[in-house]
Amino acid sequence: MPQGVLFEFGTGSWVMSAPEERMHSKTVAAVLADIDFSCRILAAALDGRSGNGAGAYASLLLLLYRRMLEDEWCPFYVERMRFTLSIENQVRAFALGSVRCALDHSECNQSRCVQDRANGGYNPVHCVAGCECGLIRPPMENMIQVLKNGDIPVLALSDEEDDASKMRVYAAKDCSYVAISHVWADGLGNPEENAILRCQARRLHRHRLSYMEGGEDLEHTRRI
């Protein structure tokens, strides 16, 4: 058995693998840990269906907490999920993973995430490494005019690739729209001006199109 990996099986047992082992999904330690974790989730779900899931879920929460920290999740968000999400949704979030795990959370704790704070060295981040696209900006005069008219400006990108850098402004009362809330920690912020990288704008636009093509009724999202 690889050094630095401890296993104990039986009633109330647990599995813990060293972080360096968890980074290599093909190691015996990581595979066994994943199998054990999956079995515990299944057992807890079955116990829940039979009305005996409280104890199983309680032990699973501690194991899930350890596993998320081993995978370098931010302790602030792990703690937040423990109190705001059901165990099922916590497991779902862990299975999906998070792009924030690639950030340095060594200075984070259960009270705050240092990566949520933009500092003087903050720069917008491209969608793909090596991308060198420029910034695109909304027509401020049009936005100001919509605001003066007492409405909310809505930005729209063209569906045509050769017109991708152009933003158009509409009044919210005249169109359906999807409201998108972004956070600076994900590279979408800009401390210098109201502008966004073209690749990021196109990515958000593709998400909007996917949302519409999925048959969702945009009328329900007009007043978010």
What distinguishing features does this structure have?
224 residues; 40% helix; disordered N terminus
The domain count comes to: 2
Nearest-angstrom radius of gyration?
23 Å
Question: Biggest sheet: strands side by side, in what order?
Answer: 1-2
Main sheet specs: 2 strands, antiparallel
What is the tally of beta strands? 6
Distance between the termini: 54 Å
Which residues form runs of ≥5 with pLDDT under 50? 1-19, 21-26, 217-224
Helix content: 25-40%
The shape is: elongated
Number of helices: 7
Report on this model:
This protein is mainly alpha-helical and 224 residues long. It folds into two domains: 6-116, no CATH class; 135-221, no CATH class. It is built from seven helices and six strands; from the N terminus they run ββαααααβαβββα. The strands form three sheets. It has a two-stranded antiparallel sheet. A hairpin with a 5-residue loop joins β1 (6-8) and β2. It is elongated. Mean pLDDT is 73; it is low at 1-19, 21-26 and 217-224.
